[in-house]
Amino acid sequence: MINRRNLLVGGALSGAALAVTATPALNALAGGPPGTPGGHHGHGPGHGPKPKPKPSGTPPTGGPFRVLMPLPPVAAPIRTRGGVDHYSFPIVQTTAELLPGVRTPVLSYGGRFIGPTIRARAGRPVSVEYRNQLGVPANVHLHGGHVAPEHDGHPMDVIKPGKSRVYEYPNRQRGTTLWYHDHSHHTEAEHVFRGLHGFYLIDDPQERHLRLPEGQYDVPIMLRESRFDEKGNLYFDPFDFDRPVVLVNGRSQPYFPVAARRYRLRLLNASTHGTLTLRLDGLPMVQVGSDGGLLPKPVRLTELTLGPAERADVVVDFSKRRVGSKVVLEEARGPVLRFDVTREARDNSRVPDTLRSLPPMPKSTVNREVVLSTDFNTIESLINGKLWDPNRIDATIRHGATETWRITNVDTDFGGVNHTFHLHLVQFRVLDRNGRPPAPNERGLKDTVFIAPGDSVRVQATFSGFLGRYVYHCHMLEHSAYGMMAQMQIVR
Ligand code: C2O
Ligand code: CU
Ligand code: CU
Question: Which residues are near ligand 3, the ion (C-beta closer than 5 Å)?
Fold first, then answer.
């Protein structure tokens, strides 16, 4: 018998209650039977003709640590004019070798499972053209970017098949680790799951003097959970919350040779649903940055938890281990990446005791309540009791206003449902969590915050820079796809 709560809480699942909502085009891509498109605007699952059998979840990985962790290549601008760097990428179906010897069909920006890395500079604008060569609408959102609404990849503002679109990113923000991903409404979870994601890094000349590790010692690492079927196809099911494979820069359990010195690792959890809990074999991870850039001061961690879409820049000093040592990064599911200390290297990097002072927090003049909940009967995900409606404005905000939002996850039933709250346009500060000061690594600028069942988190932000309409939502994209998304309008 199907128990609805299992759909959300994450039990194993099969049978007729599971309506497959993958789009026909994408199911064909995955080699599976065609489903039917789901309802619009966040209604519950549609009625697919036949649920796909759940795959075994034991793909042919070939064993741990046999493949090198690749680095997503940094894109070169196609031209630079008037101080603006221009890029152009197709959005295409392709295949990628996620598992050794297997070509897995994926969706991609620029023909790669992890799209080209854009390395921008603080204060210098970037413009990116995307040409949609998929058979379905898609779009691009720069997550954490301070961007005009028409360039933000609003869920209803998609690039139709065969069309292209230019997004402009002013980069008027401090250095940080951003990422870009699809945000096309109701298909965002599946699109991102199948590969529509990439890094967007902002380098900040003002941070040079800190001498954090840079160049080849500054390594972006995208972690994301996945499930494969026996043939090595990505298996997407919006209610499958048991995704056993954590891909690391698009590989299963790779290794990465490092020198015995400090590295800056830019960790991103690009999972559509799962939270990652990471440990590094007893080596401390010194967190220097979070979603919106550098923390005020470094935070030494032995364990790091990242909700979907959260980032952590950590400095790891591999000189604490001898050449020849192996250091395994473990996630709660098991080992995910092995660093092999293969050589000595000079190191004049450091981690200063103070990294930066955060911008002052003006007095907050508006309080809002944001309640995240799940209707276990309809399997709808709600904000303040409502489903996403693109024709409704949920919050009207005066430009320049500083506001305090209390976000509460009331999903404590049936063992609880996690949520992770994301605001577009701004970076916020976490004021408190359940009335207590936030963890030291949550004291920087953030755009995404994890909200455990029963938690109440207050955040404060100043809404300025642009007027217009932006979304806020749960970044468990299966939840936003099923309605846990709302809109704010910034007005004069
Ligand atoms: Cu990562 Cu609405 O975004
Ligand atoms: Cu975003
Ligand atoms: Cu959620």
Answer: 419, 474, 476, 479
State the Cα torsion 92-197-278-231 to the nearest 10°: -20
Ligand nearest to C-alpha 480: 3
What is the rounded average pLDDT of the residues 6-21? 32
Identify the residue whose C-alpha is closest to ligand 1 atom 1.
143
- Give, as one character, the DSSP assignment of residue 151: G
In order of start, what are the domains of the chain with their CATH numbers? Answer: 210-344 (2.60.40.420), 366-491 (2.60.40.420)
Instruction: Say if ligand 1 is within 6 A of residue 473 CB.
Output: yes
pLDDT 10s digits, 383-442: 999 999 999 999 999 999 999 999 999 999 989 999 999 999 999 999 999 999 999 999
* CA nearest to 145, candidates 192, 182, 200, 219: 200
Q: How far is the CA of 474 from the centre of ligand 3 (A)?
A: 5
Whether residue 143 has its Cβ less than 6 Å from ligand 1: yes
How far apart, in whole angstroms, are the C-alpha atoms of residue 344 and residue 339?
Answer: 14
Residue 373 Cα to ligand 2 middle (Å): 20
Does ligand 1 come within 6 angstroms of the Cβ of 185? no
Mean residue pLDDT across the chain: 90
Sequence letter at residue 205 = P
418: closest CA among 393, 445, 454? Answer: 454
CB atoms closer than 10 angstroms to residue 87 = 20
pLDDT band at 240 (very low <50, low <70, confident <90, very high): confident
- Taking the CA of residue 143 as reference, the ligand 1 atom at the shortest distance is 1
